[in-house]
Amino acid sequence: MSLNCGIVGLPNVGKSTLFQALTSAPAEAANYPFCTIEPNVGVVAVADERLDKITAHVKPQKTIPTVVEFVDIAGLVKGASKGEGLGNQFLGHIRSVSAVIHVVRCFEDDDVIHVSGRIDPIEDIQTINLELALADLEVVERKLSNASKAIKSQNKEVSSRAKAQQPILEKLQKELSEGVAARSLGLSEDEQEIVSDLNLITLKPVLYLCNVDEEAVANNGNEFVSKVQEFADAEGAKTFMICGKLESEIASLESEEEKAEFMEAAGISKSGLQVLAKVAYDMLGLRTYFTAGEKEVRAWTFHAGNKAPQAAGVIHTDFERGFIKAEVYHCDDLFKLGTEAKVKEAGKFRVEGKEYEVKDGDIMHFRFNV
């Protein structure tokens, strides 16, 4: 399981610059709208100090981190859901992601054209949110138009699902037609599952990523960031501040030593991009467990609350299907005691069954039979 995030926003807010920094991949960045034609996809390794420490203790042949996939989607504009700009062809790319990272321009720069000619982050957010809501509305109305036929279906499963969907679809139709995001309706987990086949964009978790200048980084924000934070708080969404230009410069440096020196000179202790993946993980309720042996040490992503068989299924469905037991200890015990043998001696090595709820930082070995 990997985290999959779609990067959206108006043209010229810094999406492609951020994407370049995230992936060190050359997404074309130009000072005019629509320079990103096809969605750029980059897979980024997630920095995890625990993985490095486990590797130092176990000394495997290779180490494999967990990853985040970022999809950089062309700048949307007002009317995109009706085909304006490059049209709604790009909205389809957003439907396949786990979360939406909405890049918001929170900096002044006369050399970088703004699509509306002025800097107004809240108006920018509302423009994108409206287009996403209208795109979802089209999907919901299409489904509603077929609901009566589906309810009368001779297939009981199809009929039952259609009956369960109809009242939720009607509620969604009302709110989306007013430009309200589906996530604002507070649908229960059961209700979300019932309409999961629609892949509604505005039902996905969103992170408002404030792209600022270096001065705002030094001052821990600016008036634009404050407005975005206030807007996000009212919506129950998360915000994160980053300087795309600074991150791009850090990413362009070849050695870790050069990067460390640059960050020290810039007055920052850690790259914002190093923190971004963790913020996105937490937003989706994702956690990490590890497998460790002589051949490899590897990080695996799972959902908080998963039981041992579900976590085993992340490696392979056979592991979940034929799950017998899990041998478990926590990485903190390894760091404290030094070796797996000493972990066992200290009584920290456990055998857990199907009801064990996996913890972030667990080191696991699964026994299964298929």
Protein described:
With about 375 residues, this protein is an alpha/beta fold. The protein has 16 helices and twelve strands. The strands form three sheets. Strands 2-4-1-5-6-7 form a six-stranded mixed beta sheet, sandwiched between helices. The model is unreliable at about 25-35 (pLDDT under 50).
What characteristics describe this protein?
370 residues, 12 strands, 16 helices, flat, alpha/beta
Strand content: 15-25%
Number of E-type strands? 12
How do the strands of the widest beta sheet line up side by side? 2-4-1-5-6-7
The DSSP helix count reads 16
* Helix residue percentage: 40-55%
User: Termini distance?
Assistant: 22 Å
Overall pLDDT score? 86
What is the gist of this entry?
The protein has helices spanning 15-23, 49-58, 91-94, 121-145, 147-151, 156-176, 189-194, 214-218, 223-235, 244-252, 256-266, 272-283, 308-315, 317-321, 331-337, 340-345, and strands at 3-8, 40-45, 62-64, 67-72, 99-105, 206-211, 238-242, 286-292, 296-303, 323-330, 350-352, 362-368. It is an alpha/beta fold and 370 residues long.
Fold topology:
Elements: E1 3-8, H1 15-23, E2 40-45, H2 49-58, E3 62-64, E4 67-72, H3 91-94, E5 99-105, H4 121-145, H5 147-151, H6 156-176, H7 189-194, E6 206-211, H8 214-218, H9 223-235, E7 238-242, H10 244-252, H11 256-266, H12 272-283, E8 286-292, E9 296-303, H13 308-315, H14 317-321, E10 323-330, H15 331-337, H16 340-345, E11 350-352, E12 362-368
Parallel strand pairs: 1-4, 1-5, 3-9, 5-6, 6-7
Antiparallel strand pairs: 2-4, 8-9, 10-11, 10-12
